[in-house]
Amino acid sequence: MIEVEVKGDIEYAIRQLKKKLQLNGVKKELKRREYYEKPSVRRRRKKAESQRKLRKIMMRMERQ
User: Fold this and answer.
1) For residues 22-60, b (16+ Cβ closer than 10 Å) or e, as one string?
2) Per residue in 6-55, pLDDT tens?
């Protein structure tokens, strides 16, 4: 559960909440679930995501 403590400035608290939701992936998940996604499209998206993650890890390994 995501919590943000409000200490006066509500605008600041809202920004903090949005940032936490984005880092947690909640916004992305809600946007993705807004419309039906065909199973073939879902498989393609997941494969692309895993390749991106792998490429990112490989780039980190090369830098070290």
Assistant:
1) eeeeeeeeeeeeeeeeeeeeeeeeeeeeeeeeeeeeeee
2) 988 999 999 999 999 999 999 889 999 999 999 999 999 999 999 999 99
